Amino acid sequence: MKLTPTPGQTVGPFFGYALPYPGGEALVDRSHPGAVRLHGTVYDGDGGPVPDALLEIWQPDELGAISQQPGSLHRDGYTFTGWGRAAVDGVGHYSFTTLEPGSTGSEVAPYVLVTIFARGLMDRLFTRAYLPADPATLERDPLLSSVPAERRHTMLATREPDGSLRFDIHFQGEDETVFLTYPNTPQFTGPVD
């Protein structure tokens, strides 16, 4: 029997019911001496908040070491795994409690890798939230310096007066976030017969 191709399925909004889990947004406890809040809002192409997105972050620790420890889904309160997951609220806002990542190399500016799942997307999106740093450090980063200068600000978190980091994500429009592709990473294309 020959199967007829069907349109792709979007990645959302069904994930909001099964994927968030208690404590997923807390990579460290708020009482940790190095804890920082990474938060922002996800916006659609019209500038309105997206109320049903889900974000994941991946990052090194404050020394730039990438954790190889298990336990992201069942946190023990002591082990930093460098991974977290949070659903946005009804007005598109998300929040993580984490550590400020260190650099993973001599020319690499510190950043948090952000993955976004949302309704209407055919696949997840990837971007980086670079920490505020001196311009020379950001200019030396191989990936950030490859982005056109007028678009780099869409990948930069800003420091708020309370010390938290704000990183808003825009799917389209004038401030559309720069999204990354990883050509050698297999993408889900559906069942194979």
Automatic annotation (TrEMBL):
One of its GO terms (molecular function) is protocatechuate 3,4-dioxygenase activity. It comes from the Bacteria. Residues 33-105 form the Intradiol ring-cleavage dioxygenases domain. SUPFAM superfamilies: Aromatic compound dioxygenase (SSF49482). Keywords: Dioxygenase, Oxidoreductase. Gene3D superfamilies: Aromatic compound dioxygenase. Belongs to the intradiol ring-cleavage dioxygenase family. This is Protocatechuate 3,4-dioxygenase alpha subunit. It comes from Nesterenkonia aurantiaca.
